[in-house]
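Exercise 3.2. Students should predict the tertiary structure of the chain below and write it as structure tokens, then compare their answer with the key that follows.

Predict this chain's 3D structure.
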Amino acid sequence: MTTKQKYIPSLSIHEFVKNVLPFLSEKYSSKIQRKSEFFMCDLASVTPDYLLDSPFIYDFFTIYFVEDGSIAKINQLQSLEIGEKQIFFSKPGEIKTWQKLNDPKGYLVSFTLDFLLLLVDDKNLINTFDYLLPNSRRKFELNAARFKLYKTIFNELHKEFTSPNKYSKDLIKFWIFVILIKTNRMHADGSGSGLGVSKKSSDFIYHKFMFIMEQNFKDLAAQKVDRPFMVREFADLLNINPTYLGECVRKASGKSAKSIINQRTILMAKCQLLHTFNNISEIAYQLGFESSGYFIRFFKKYEGMTPLEFRKQGLRT
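Answer key:
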């Protein structure tokens, strides 16, 4: 069982290395600073003795490339195992807990959204990376040819990070971009969402909506905002009409924008109920509800049980 806490911390790359991988802090002290936008280590150097048993929130993207062995994690309340010849992408705002390491070999690569935006001149290209969106496929099995290619890329990336030379920063950005594009092609699998293929305007707007929604919930977890935004506020941020936003989201996902926001609110509520010792009123307040009664009715509508019943059920499992 994970340790309960007052709130679920949101960690920067520097804080992640310091708190979750403290044994690497000294090794990479010259490479990891408070405002670091990139970090990389080999998985063989990650030992289970130091892993936190309490959940935390990434404030950055992470790629797990596993050559051998496996990693067991809880990601957004879902059990996950990343095994041999697999690659997995984690994004900012996700709540996770490391559970078990089975002698993994490979690499862990972390980078911020700002770092990602520096990779391309066309900022809209980021919105074509479907696998970085919530609820999308983000774990990939690599066949022999792809595994060989990715292994070469990650080895080169690690070499540039650990033994920097002239143009190393540029090469690091280049190799990350290659990984993202190669994975996007693999994710698309001929469906037309890879590099150089235009997407429908509804897909484009849906992707931007999902990105800024995740940022909103990340800010909510960090107590930078006092509630989830409403559909019209997301529309304002996108500089479009709320009705048009709703149409695009429904066309791309089959769901209404409001239902997606509500489901994300439920997920955050579940994480608070299972991983913090805050009472129902405190959680309701943190999620922006006017009263605990309204929060209880909202939660029961989606889950068929009250928040307290959900918490008790979680304690029994």
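Discussion points: DSSP finds twelve helices and eight strands in the chain. The beta strands are 10-11, 38-42, 56-58, 61-75, 78-82, 86-90, 95-111, 139-141.
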